[in-house]
Automatic annotation (TrEMBL):
InterPro entries: Mem_transp_PIN-like, Na+/solute_symporter_sf. This is AEC family transporter. The chain crosses the membrane at residues 60-80, 92-115, 121-141, 153-172, 184-203, 215-237, 243-261, 273-296. It comes from Deinococcus rubellus. Keywords: Cell membrane, Membrane, Transmembrane, Transmembrane helix, Transport. It comes from the Bacteria. The keyword Aminoacyl-tRNA synthetase does not apply. The keyword Transport applies. It is found in: Cell membrane. Belongs to the auxin efflux carrier (TC 2.A.69) family. It is a multi-pass membrane protein.
């Protein structure tokens, strides 16, 4: 298991390191890279994944509900823990605690830990996290802009419309032409490395990560407190067996790179978010190693 986890973590750290190296040596426009991820690659990934997944949402409605409740509890936990921090930093802590990396990190770990059936659970959680990240994320980072202006900003995000289009197409049993589908598949495959490179560039151009109190606070809550919270919420809602295991495992994932992407777009405390992504990615090696052996003991 340790060897399998390292084969997931090390590629992530490798891409981050290469991005940091390139960002430190070359003059790259990180804002352009960030917007390319936000407005093109991530929407394509969401559309491609939703069109091709074999998961049945009706059978997993309780799992999706539990994940939404858990994410909301993470926002509240981050708010309470960071209450004395300045507004931008407090919002960064809230996002870092609630938005987990259920994609490029969570999917392989679930496959290694729970097999194909566990991977299917993780895939549903990932799709739910895409929806939640790009709706609740801007609301968290929006600050004092007000609810309706922030919602209007959310509706301008292409990922929201791509998710809606994919759900309509699945409901009508429609398929894309083969050539278009393959093109979208190529773009979707480029998304995860690109968002990791974007984070690496930010770390490389921003100097050393800030290892201050907000970073350690958000990191500890994300990696070690959220799995316990996931167990409590999942059990209370009624999850058992593989569904409960999938939720608990997903809650042990590090902070998502997309939290950093959103923090850059909405001019939040992106340094705290970037540092937390890095720290939680490292800490999750320990966190996941603790959680995985305990999954078999869950009811």
């Amino acid at each position: 298991m340790l060897s399998a986890l390292l084969t997931v973590v090390l590629p992530v750290l490798l891409i981050l390191g290469l991005g940091a190296l390139v960002g430190n040596r070359l003059s790259l426009d990180s804002t352009t890279i960030n917007r390319l991820n936000l407005y093109l690659l991530t929407p394509t990934l969401a559309l491609n994944t939703l069109l091709h997944t074999e998961a049945k949402p009706r059978e997993l409605a309780t799992l999706v509900l539990a994940y939404f409740v858990l994410s909301g509890a993470g926002v509240l936990l981050g708010y309470l823990a960071g209450y004395r921090q300045p507004g931008p930093t407090r919002r960064a802590v809230m996002a870092c605690v609630s938005i987990g990396n259920n994609g490029n990190f969570g999917l392989p770990v679930a496959l290694f830990a729970l097999g194909q059936a566990g991977f299917d659970q993780a895939l549903v959680i990932f799709l739910s996290s895409v929806v939640l990240t790009f709706t609740a994320g801007p609301l968290i980072f929006g600050g004092g802009g007000g609810l309706w202006p922030t919602l209007r900003g959310v509706l301008k995000l292409p990922v929201v419309w791509c998710i809606a289009a994919a759900l309509i197409m699945r409901g009508l049993h429609l398929a894309l032409p083969l050539g278009l589908d393959r093109g979208l598949g190529l773009l979707a495959g480029a998304t995860l490395p690109m968002v990791l490179l974007s984070l690496g560039v930010q770390l490389g151009t921003g100097g050393r990560p800030r290892l201050n109190f907000p970073v350690w606070l958000a990191s500890g809550l994300r990696v070690f407190a959220m799995p316990l919270l996931g167990l409590i919420i999942g059990y209370a809602i009624g999850l058992r067996g593989l569904h409960l295991q999938g939720l608990v495992l997903s809650s042990a994932m590090p902070t998502a790179v997309n939290a950093f992407v959103l923090s850059k777009e909405y001019r939040a405390d992106s340094d705290t978010v970037a540092s937390t992504v890095l720290v939680t990615t490292l800490l999750s090696v320990v966190g996941v190693a603790i959680v995985v052996p305990l999954l078999g003991r869950l009811p």
